[in-house]
Design goal:
Two copies of one chain form a homodimer. In chain A, the strands form two sheets. Chain A has a three-stranded mixed β-sheet. In chain A, strands 1-2 form a two-stranded antiparallel ribbon. With 146 residues, chain A is of the alpha+beta class. In chain A, a hairpin with a 5-residue loop joins strand 3 and strand 4. Chain A folds into two domains: 79 residues, Winged helix-like DNA-binding domain superfamily/Winged helix DNA-binding domain (Arc Repressor Mutant, subunit A, Orthogonal Bundle), CATH 1.10.10.10; 65 residues, Dna Ligase, domain 1 (2-Layer Sandwich). The longest helix of chain A is centred in the middle third of the chain and has 13 residues. The first copy, chain A, is globular, with a radius of gyration of 18 Å. Helices cover 29% and strands 18% of the residues of chain A. Chains A and B meet through helix 3, strand 1 and strand 5 of A and helix 3, strand 1 and strand 5 of B. The structure holds a DNA duplex (25 and 25 nucleotides).
DNA sequence: GTTACTGCAAAGCTTTTGCATCCCT
DNA sequence: AGGGATGCAAAAGCTTTGCAGTAAC
């Protein structure tokens, strides 16, 4: 966690715990998952601190917020440009490092200055494919039904 | 709205109003925007009815839910496969009809059966580009900072 | 006449905020 | 010592649910 020193950012035990939890983590955890994981070892940890720390890390570019799961933010400590594939059944998210060329022609970007892009793939992971062939549409099928 | 007859779906005045509001609409409205737009003409309309109708339409494939704006669903009556470009400042969303080839190699999809995908472009629309060159990062910069 | 839908209010879930206290630097 | 961080609780924002009444079929 040495890389966070000298950035005008106080290294409290709670922050260090969150940073260590995230470092190298490929689970794309939500704030809730982070909180539940750390509250065992740090019983005084609060959700406010988790959100506060995640916001600081996000604003400084050490963490990316993912919106791939509706109504819930997931967090990714890998800030290199990449995309994501989520299982529609169990919500597992894996990284996709495909180098896709998605340049838009002028008439397509409608005068916008394009700053970034992100591809969301939807599917079924192997365990879920075997377990539940159907029954995904509960709660509203999202944009993955095409 | 004739296309919704004979589907075991009751055509109430509220539903017809929502369907007419959505038909051909390219604004990608949220439930709140739909409710506010219709409550003038239909003062008894409730949010529960808006959400109920949107869920029915989504499950039947007449509407797509978009998760591009964090913590808020947006709805798109255009269910043809396409992508979206959102202004990071004013949250305006426009359609992108680029035919991008995003097939993943076997080692990339990690055993998943891929069912769909969606590309989210982030940028600044022309009015916002002139108006506010900076000041977008408030509230957490999302996945668009790459 | 049935069945499904409406609308209200209450509750749920995630996230944010106010504020007194605490502690890292 | 000082300014930022913590943690609690309360509140906010979006969405869902329970249920009695109502209207479409």
């Amino acid at each position: 966690m040495e890389k966070f020193r000298g950035l005008g950012l106080k290294l409290t035990p709670q922050r260090i715990a969150i940073m260590q939890y995230l470092d190298g983590n490929t689970e794309h955890p939500s704030a809730d998952v982070i909180y539940k994981s750390l509250t065992k070892k740090y019983p005084t940890m609060s959700m406010a601190t988790v959100y506060n720390t995640l916001e600081v890390l996000t604003n400084r570019g050490y963490v990316r917020e993912l919106t791939i799961e509706p109504q819930k933010k997931r967090f990714d400590p890998n800030t290199k440009h990449h995309h994501h594939l989520m299982c529609m059944a169990c919500k597992k998210i894996v990284d996709v490092h495909s180098a896709v060329n998605v340049d838009l022609s002028p008439e397509e970007h409608d005068g916008f200055e394009i700053i970034g892009h992100h591809i969301e793939f939807y599917g079924l992971c192997q365990p879920c494919k075997k377990r539940e062939p159907i029954k995904l549409l509960k709660g509203g099928s999202h944009q993955w039904q095409m």
